[in-house]
Please model this.
Amino acid sequence: MGELIIGVAFVFAAYLVGAVPTAHIFGRRTGREIRSMGSGNVGALNALRSLGKAVGVLVFGVDTGKAALMMVTATFIGVPDWSMYAGALSTMLGHNFSVFIGFYGGKGAAVMSGISLVIVPYLALLSIPALLLGYVIFRSAFWGMMMTFISINILTVLTGQPVEQIVLCVVLTLLVGMTHFLRTYRTLWPAIKTLDFHRIGEIE
Model:
């Protein structure tokens, strides 16, 4: 019973940590509301475009760090495996649908980066060429990140990682993609229908 309580408490705490709206906080500190700027997305890319490079990099770093922190904490306190994986998902759900700002938020790319760096660190590093390739080909941070995540998913299978890790990577990747699709549907769907990959990468 004690292990169950600790596991559930960790998942709940992971949501709250993930829900800290970093981009919103930094925007407010400069007297600006990021939800009314650019795409309105409360994430690193919109922060980069709307609040400047320095803030964008800082937001990405903090959002990546909060996800990595939860995974390190899970290992340190020895929560059950199911709780660690559920906590990873909960962290992203908190980031994408933050209770602190009306269940809105980012799209989870930075969070998945932080989770991957702890759970599958070598595979995350091996996927960096995919990030660079995606950016060079499409000049798009979106495609760079998506190619990175696809690469991590493929590598988890090819290197024989545990089924739980493979499933987690797939689910997190789908959540990033679906959140992006649902929030940009009106402009994204026409680009998808015409297979305009450059336009898809520009939509944020």
The chain has twelve helices and no strands. The CA atoms of residues 34 and 101 lie 12 Å apart.
